[in-house]
Amino acid sequence: MSETFDIASVRSYLVGLQQRITSGLNAIDATPFVVDAWHKEAHEPLQGQGITMIMEGGPVFERAGCGFSHVSGPKLPPSATAHRPELAGAPFEAMGVSLVFHPRNPYVPTVHMNVRMIVSKPEGAPPVAWFGGGMDLTPYYGFDEDAVHFHQTCKDALAPFGADLHPRFKAWCDTYFCNKHRQEQRGVGGIFFDDFAELGMSQSLAMLQSVGDALLPAYLPIVQARKDMAYGARERDFQLYRRGRYVEFNLVWDRGTHFGLQSGGRTESILLSMPPLVSWSYNHRDATGSPEAQLLSHFLVPKDWV
């Protein structure tokens, strides 16, 4: 790594991002976030601190979790060294902001966003740092214009850093956010990147910040457009059923969940992405031509929305 970087400035950005995002949700929902500042002591597998902010039971968001963490540990977990075997066993430092917002109205999609930096400190060698993150949208009842807006905002966030990034990160998102055991996409996608430092430290960090800053303009206009739509028991039951797919992905496939649990992270914060209510149905089948069937046939199919 030829460039130097200031970990304190990255931390300052991430803490500020968490505050801006939660303030944006407060402006819509008006339900206060519970702020849980936590510390992990030096004798634990990880040491460090974080701030978990949770809103529950609001009129717009049934649960909205947004967490900041900054931890260090003596050994990178397997999930972080799958593509960097030369760093296996090296001490590390990691920080990031991760969020999942589960709306009450089934016509409002769930959103996920994560931005993070990992710094590995191999013995006798200079530190190695890389970035990861992205955002993706998971509707229960899809609207083409919502998918287009979300993807266009993601594309605009990446545009200053190279025209090749959006198609790469969009395809990466489609590949990653897939319940492979069902051969089914989690949602309409967005962007995803990991182990990224190819622009150099300063520009890679600037790109990460652009992605983090894009979350509110990508998501809040969709919330405003859908939050007051009328719905009934049918739509609510379908929302809870589809949330089951979200849980399956987070527990079976998500590298962030695996990283946190494998490294001895704080379980409550790691699992803040879980919806408050969820259901599973055995061998569920949607009626042909129904809006529920259209979710699978039209929206949960990788496509170029912009």
User: Any guess at the CATH architecture?
Assistant: 3-Layer(aba) Sandwich
Largest sheet: 7 strands, antiparallel
Distinct helical segment count: 10
What would the average pLDDT be, to the nearest integer? 90
In short:
The chain is α+β, with helices and mostly antiparallel strands. It is 39% helix and 25% strand.
What does this structure look like?
The chain is of the alpha+beta class. It has one domain (7-299): 3-Layer(aba) Sandwich (oxygen-dependent coproporphyrinogen oxidase). 39% of the residues lie in helices and 25% in strands. It has helices at 7-29, 78-81, 144-158, 165-176, 201-213, 215-226, 233-252, 255-262, 267-270, 291-299; strands spanning 34-40, 47-56, 61-73, 92-103, 110-120, 128-138, 178-179, 184-185, 189-196. A seven-stranded antiparallel β-sheet has the order 1-2-3-4-5-6-9. Strands 7-8 form a two-stranded antiparallel sheet. Strand 4 (92-103) and strand 5 form a beta hairpin. Helix 1 packs parallel to helix 6 and helix 3 runs antiparallel to helix 6 (215-226).
Key terms:
306 residues; single chain; seven-stranded antiparallel sheet; oxygen-dependent coproporphyrinogen oxidase; two-stranded antiparallel ribbon
